[in-house]
């Protein structure tokens, strides 16, 4: 039996939908939401009825009958940090998604709410797969040089893990038996170390770590950042550099990676320097994650939208193939990954997990 899965991935001004029957894609679409309409809502969760109605209209036009769906999967925003895997959207997860219990307000909070709503209506299961705050860091990766300050992790966990699982399956391997350095290179850039099925380290892209990206500043020398903060009174403006106004936006006034690449190739010196610096930083971060794995790396895997750029892939390959073979998986597999996680559970290949609402790690565990 091929299970039929509906996946729901809300973004800032759109909601991505996918319907899958086993590995077969039946339907995908991007439901756009008017930015002016969204401004009318005080909170992310207040958008729920508006987005749900638009989703239902899109599904009706696509002739998708929700009564035929075996499980619903929503992007797991708003939740506390958890280990990777597939979780039932229980009452605690639903409450945390509504409130944004992790302190980060993001449209992905609507994923569990919409999925659970459909599941309750049609008496089917609902799941979250590799939530945005997936945290499998080893203890050493949490410690910083300031007592009482600890590293968190915010990465493109869903696409990172799916890329590693796909690569393993393509080679007849088990993800849990291999070590990888896995990168997501898109609007944001994540670089992570995967050891035997666990993402044991990675650069915190929300906290200002790793390579610069189109809208993110990446790692900054601490002393220089402190001076910058004291010279700028608006803390929101400074924090925005980590997620919205850093990287290409800060240097070049655009977040369009294709535009920056084209400008660099056309001889724009500023664009070339920034483009080259991003690739340089990517290479450095990949090498750091290889060191975390003690050089025992079965593959360096590149995913995300920028991986369509062959020159970028070629330059990373030339610099890093001495570590391990480099494989490119252009684009994102988020909808497919969400469906695959639900199917693994329904087929009994993976044990479903229960969300407790307790973060996977807190500093008191050091006592």
Indicate the CATH topology of the largest domain.
Nucleotidyltransferase, domain 5
CATH C-level name of the largest domain: Alpha Beta
Tell me the number of helical segments per DSSP (H or I, 4 or more residues long). Answer: 13
- Helical percentage: 25-40%
- What do the pLDDT scores average to? 96
CATH superfamily of the largest domain: ATPase, nucleotide binding domain
Rg is: 20 Å
CATH architecture of the largest domain: 2-Layer Sandwich
What is the number of strand segments?
Answer: 12
Termini separation comes to 49 Å
Uncertain stretches: none
Beta content: 15-25%
What shape does the CA trace take?
globular
Order of helices and strands: EEEHHEEHHEHHEEEHHHHHEHEHE
Organism: Agathobacter ruminis
Protein name: Probable butyrate kinase
Enzyme class: transferase
GO cellular component, one term: cytoplasm
